[in-house]
Design goal:
190 residues; alpha/beta; Pyruvate-ferredoxin Oxidoreductase, domain 3; 7-stranded mixed beta sheet; 38% helix
Length: 190
């Protein structure tokens, strides 16, 4: 199988590290060679962050270049738009509709862009936008947006449900397991 590329993008503190760890675990469990990058960006300061997950028969580098991402999983709308140039022409964006104001918006130097989903669709991108924050809160915690997003992403992977569940059990602390399983299901069934 040729290498597939997943970018997980968002704002520091949203849970992208757990999402990339869980996705890497899932894909390794399916027999793929997997490379997961470290978090790049200002993760401790609420800045833009990105991790790369690459998988296939043999993967030589964890880095994804512009135009190579099969999937972009975004925790925040502006981040989905910011990384759009990395998406393949036939790639898929799975994004939360949550909006987190970046520093220029907070300081009043800029305004948060409007109508981002339609602007991304206008470029020809396939965009699956979902109110992941509401679903995470319905599951029991706003911090479960990452599992809602992975539940939604599972639609685009031909992998058994049990494999996803096994990876959730392996990567999520026991005291948060049921909440995260519920978040995954809500994202999957939305």
């Amino acid at each position: 199988m040729k290498t597939k590329n997943v970018m997980i993008v968002g704002v520091g503190g949203q849970g992208s590290l757990l999402a990339s760890k869980l996705l890497g675990h899932l894909l390794m469990g399916q027999g793929y060679d997997v490379k997961v990058s470290e978090v790049h960006g200002m993760s401790q300061r609420g800045g833009s962050v990105v991790t790369y997950v690459r998988y296939g028969d043999k993967v030589y580098s964890p880095v994804i270049d512009k135009g190579e991402a099969d999937y972009i999983v975004s925790f925040e709308l502006l981040e989905a738009a910011r990384w759009l140039s990395y998406l393949k022409p036939d790639g898929q964006i799975v994004t939360s509709t949550q909006q987190v104001d970046p520093m220029p918006v907070i300081t009043g130097a800029a305004e948060y862009p409007t109508d981002l989903v339609n602007k991304m669709l206008a470029t020809g991108a396939k965009v699956d936008a979902l109110d992941c924050l509401s679903l995470a809160e319905q599951a029991g915690s706003a911090k479960a947006v990452n599992l809602v997003l992975l539940g939604r992403l599972s639609h685009y992977f031909d992998l058994p449900e049990e494999a996803w569940q096994k990876s959730i059990e392996a990567c999520v602390p026991a005291k948060f397991l049921e909440l995260n399983k519920k978040a995954f299901e809500l994202g999957k069934n939305a």
